Task: structure prediction
Amino acid sequence: MSSSMKKLHSLYTDKSGKGKLLAAPYVFWSAFFIIIPLCMILYYGVTDKTGAFTLQNITAIASIGHARAFWRSLLLSVVSTVICFLLAYPLAMILSGMKEKKHNFIILIFILPMWMNFLLRTLAWQTLLEKTGVINGILSFFKLPSLRIINTPYAIVLGMVYNFLPFMVLPLYNALSKIDENVINAAKDLGANKIQTFFRVIMPLSIPGIISGVTMVFVPALTTFVISTLLGGSKVLLIGNVIEQEFTQASNWHLGSGLSIVLMIFIILNMIVSALLDKED
Amino acid sequence: MQTVKKIYVSLIFLFLYAPIGTLIVLSFNASKTRSKWGGFTMQWYASLLQDEVILDALTTTLLIAFLSALIASVIGTIAAVAMNGMKRRTRTLLIGVTNIPMLNADIVTGISLMLLFISIGLRFGFGTILLSHITFNIPYVILCIMPRMKQLNPSVYEAALDLGASHITAFFKVMLPDLMPGILSGFLMAFTMSLDDFIITHFTKGAGIDTLSTKIYTEVKKGIKPEMYALSTIIFVTVLILLFLVNKTPDKKEKTN
Result:
C-alpha cells in the first residue's frame, strides 16, 4: 500500500470512524437479507413440523423419487455445462482475436436478449421444436428426418445451453482478451507450434475465465425448475421442480429446505473446487 | 479460416436470436395458437393498450426494476466506498458475503427470503418483491463500481481536502464523478437483472400482484396471450433503438477530459 493510499485509508477508518459508518447500511442489509435467510433454510432443513431436530429432510434426497430427480439434474447440468464450454471457447477466441476491439458492443450483443423475457424466449423454443414447428418445417423441406426432442431431456439441455451460454462466453471473452499478445508471440518465437501455444499458454491463462464461466452455467442449470417445466412437459422432473413444489404446492417447507441444503452443498463444493484451481495458478 | 470463423459466429448468433425472431413474428400472427400462422395482423398491439392486467404487470415490473436498481445503486456505492477503506480481512469477508447472492442458486435465494418474510410477518406484495430485488441487485452494482474504485487516484481526493473541501463536498465533487460510469453500468445491470428475474419474484410476491415474468408463468398452461408477444416486441425494439442511439453519439466527456 502506498503512503497516499494509507492516508486515504486512514481518512475512511480512523478519523471519526467514518468508514464504519459508511459500511453500516450495507453490513446491516447483507446480514439481514443474506445471512439470516440462509440460516433460516438451515434451521428449517434440520427440524420437523414440531420444531424437533431431525436429519430426515436431508436424507430424503436418497428416497427413490428424489434421488432420481437429483441424479437427472446433475447429469443434465453437467452435460449442458460441457456443451456451453465447447461452444463458447472457440467463440470467445474468435471474438477476442478480432482486430477492432469492440469490447462494449460484443458484451451488449450477449446481454441484449435478456431484454426479452426469458420465459418467453424459452417458450419460443416450443414453437421452434414442435412436431409441426419451424425447425421440422425446414428439415422436411430438405427431406431430412424430423427432430422429436420437445418434452424430452434433450430439449431441457437445449434450453439450458440457450439460456446460460452468454454466462460462459462473457467470462471467457474477458479472460482471453486480457492475455498479452506478446506472451503468445514469445511462445511462438521460442518454437511452440499452434497447438502447444494453445494448451501451454492460452488455455492456462484463461483458467479464471473458465472457472467463473463453469460456475455461472452449472449452478443455475443444476437448480432450474423453469426450463424443465417449459420444455420438458410435465414428464421430466428436476430437483428444482421437487423443491419448488414442496414450497408452493405441498407446503412442506422443512422438506424443501432440507433438499435445498443438499443443493447448497453441491454449490459450495463447486466453489471450493474453483477456489483450489484458482490458487494453483 | 476466416470464413469458417464467420460462419461459426453467425450460427451462434442465429441460435441466440432465433427465439427472439420467433416471438416478434408471433406478435403479428393473426391466429391465436402458437403453432399456426394465420396471416399478418396488428390487432394484438391495439388490444394490448386495452389489456389492464398486462399493463398493470408492466407497471409493477418497471417500478420494481427502477426502484430496486436505484436503491441498490445508492447502497452499493456507499458500500463500495466503505469497502475500499477497510482492512484487508474485513473487506475479503464482506466481498465474500456480497458474492453469495450471485453464486447461490436463485431458487435458494428466493426460498430463503420467503422464509425470512414469513418469520418476521411481512405481508407479501410489492414491498417484499422490492426488498428481494434490492438484495440481489446490490452485488451487481458493487461489482461494477469496484474496478473503478481501484483506478481512483487517492491524491486527487486529498488535494480536494487540502484545498478546504469537506469530506462530503470532496465525495460529491471529486470521487462521485469519477465513479459515475461504474455506478451507471451497475444501475443498468441491476435494472436488467430485475426486469428479467422470475424465480426470486415467484417465491416472494404473494397473491394479487404480478410482474410480467410471473404473469407469463401462470399463463403458460392456458396459453400465452398474444398481447404478451406484442408487449415484449415493443420493449425489445425500444431497447434496441435506445442502444443504437447511445452507441451512435460519441462519448464527448471521455474525449475532452
Q: What stands out?
A: Chain A touches chain B through 86 residues (CB under 8 Å). Chain A has a mean pLDDT of 85. Residues 188 and 194 of chain A are 8 Å apart (CA to CA). The first helix of chain A runs from residue 3 to 13.
